[in-house]
Design a protein that fits this description.
D-Maltodextrin-Binding Protein, domain 2, six-stranded mixed β-sheet, about 280 residues, globular, seven-stranded mixed β-sheet, about 35% helix, Fructose-1,6-Bisphosphatase, Chain A, domain 1, alpha+beta
Amino acid sequence: MDEQTSQRVDVLDARDQLIDAARAAGAIALEYFRPGERTSAHIDYKPGGSPVTEADLAANAFLQARLGKAFAGAGWLSEETEDASDRVTHASVLIVDPIDGTRAFLAGDPRWAVAIALVDGGRPVAGVVHAPALGETYAAARGCGSLLNGAAIAVSSRDRLDGARIGGPKAMVESIARAAGISFVTQPKIPSLAYRIALVASGALDLALASEESHDWDVAAADLILEEAGGRLAEAFDGPLRYNRVETRRGVLFGASARMIGPFLAAGRLVAGKPLA
């Protein structure tokens, strides 16, 4: 077996382990989820006011124990775990959001997800975005394509911004449309950012936009899924994202197919007061 084939087997195994872990964590969270109703889970609030439920913490504890054994030696970064100062010294790191879209989860909206990525050398090599309440599992391994419930997916074939289906903050979407002199087909709010980006990977959306202050755990898994489906996730001025940095926060993010990301970034830069590049 040559080195390239061996590496592919490794990332496929990693992907499958992440899928199994995400589905198990999703089953834990589902015990507290009430479709259309408030969660049965106890709710606390972090400094700054964002909610965290006992379901977030239970899923996080499960994932940390299971993945810590499966990927011994990898660093750990999770929304629900205090960030360890030595994380960046590890070549590989697991980046986890046990429930991306906690506000949706606690309100009974099914559009939340378990997001897990294995990052090596600053880029994800395996990732999963699992939406338990919707029965949807998006997954990818580097060089092996992206899947939705085991079937191959790809970004849309659209090549024009005007009329594109977009998910993102309404005010930002409208600002970009005005600046670029185009119109978008704006989708209703999609609470989970990871799920929003995964919808671009599957072709259900053409574009995804995220405001400032998202974090690596919101996007690392979906980044790989989008890339392997023929798309790109990028910040306006910094290009492809690098992970396992000291700083986990992100600026405005743009997700699109490879053919659409250039025009989309250019339109976004108009709003930021920068020239077209």
